[in-house]
Amino acid sequence: xxxxxxxxxxxxxxxxxxxxxxxPLLDAGFISRxxxxxxxxxxxxxxxxxxxxxANPEDYWVAFxxxxxxxxxGQDPIKVPMNAxxxxxxxxxxxxxxxxxxxxLNRNVAQQTRxxxxxxxxxxxxxxxxxxxxxxxxxxxxxxxxxxxxxANNAINGGYRKWSALGSRRDNVILWDQNHPTNLAAWELRxxxxxxxxxxxPDPVGHVFDIHMVVLPPNVTPDQVAQHFIRHINESTRxxxxxxxxxxxxxxxxxxxxxxxxxxxxxxPRYSNCHIHIDGTMAFGARQLDFSRPFCHSFVSSCxxxxxxxxxxxILYIDPAKAINFEPNIFAxxxxxxxxxxxxxxxxxERFELLGQRDDVNIITLLWTELMWQNIGxxxxxxxxxxLASKLITDLRECKWGxxxxxxxxxxxxxxxxxxxxxxxxxxxxxELYANxxxxxxxxxxxxxxxxxxxxxxxxxxxxxxxxxxVDIMNKWRGPVR
Length: 482
What we know:
Elements: H1 11-27, H2 33-50, H3 57-65, E1 80-81, H4 92-105, H5 119-134, E2 143-146, H6 149-157, E3 172-176, H7 185-189, E4 192-195, E5 209-214, H8 222-230, E6 237-243, H9 255-266, E7 275-279, E8 298-302, E9 314-318, H10 320-323, H11 360-376, H12 378-398, E10 416-419, H13 429-435, E11 438-439, E12 441-442, E13 453-456, H14 464-478
Parallel strand pairs: 1-11, 3-5, 3-6, 4-5, 6-7, 7-8
Antiparallel strand pairs: 2-9, 8-9, 10-13, 12-13
Helix pairs in contact: 1-2, 1-11, 2-4, 2-11, 4-11, 5-11, 8-9, 12-14
């Protein structure tokens, strides 16, 4: 596939891919000619905008922001989202195209259109193939389209069926204490009990495996991170699992550490039963992912966060050699409306797609979203995410705010946590920001009036002006620093 130097598509390639998603629907009578024309012209204009390279780079991102509904608020004041770790808005052209398609497809919901060999079933496979190409997975069936990262995490921790019988040495799981609850507390739900240094081992009754918790010290360097995981690994280790970037403190497990952990496990036959699982929810859409070089056995993400995709879509990659170790938490028919024998499930990631009815339009919209990323260019998007986070951290620290997120770009990616000073303010900082047009996230409230921390996750739909505005609101709320 030909691309420009900045890794974006050519106009011809983009038009060809867009046509390939719409023409089969037109030929099959699912959509009208008017619908085809409307969706094609709107998306083609949008993608052409994304391929531009203006002299002033900030002009590019200002123009991109105008493609989102939050900048056209109608009667309500503008609410600029800065919380990509939780949920992102969809670009207006993609949302409009999805709405047009949803209306058209609603005219024919016949089962024949969604069964094996049906057009919508084929488009599901095409969406999977497009996402697989996006992250350089050679075999598309090793990637499942699920509903979100939470479901995918639980497919791993709830589906494993190869635990050893209890003996003198129980199986163990190594977790990072900054994992998302769906990849932390969920392991305890499945029968894990924490091993706390210096305290007696937990009661083995109802205890399936031990949990060793990794706590990274402050100011840890990228080269030191891997050893904090590796020192826990032994022949009884069944899982090592961590978030690529934590939504809880903004710390990133650097690529050098991920590769070192992988090399340690994969090179030693004693650890052949060890499975490395990564929650990449903060990575997919924030940077280019490359599975052409192995670094884990399974990887999950939601598509409605940094990827800017439709809600209730996500991905689960799993090494086919490991997939058969898991039973799906949900057993229903697949997207081809096939009910499989319970003991004859797919031996690939497809075994996690037995979810029953799916939203066909959202699946097709994933194709258009992935095409958006090809037109933006992965390297340009990643540079922008790091640029926005870096500006926010720098500006806040210059204004004497306590930023807890590491400044080393190898140790962070887009998630910025800030300490909130105590004071006499009558409003919470998150409420003050929201009232003035910035929608950020916040830590659990210690009482009805105060917060301890606030989180910003600026994404490529944000501008430098948004960063400046957020910092100004914070400074005014806090008042002079003495």
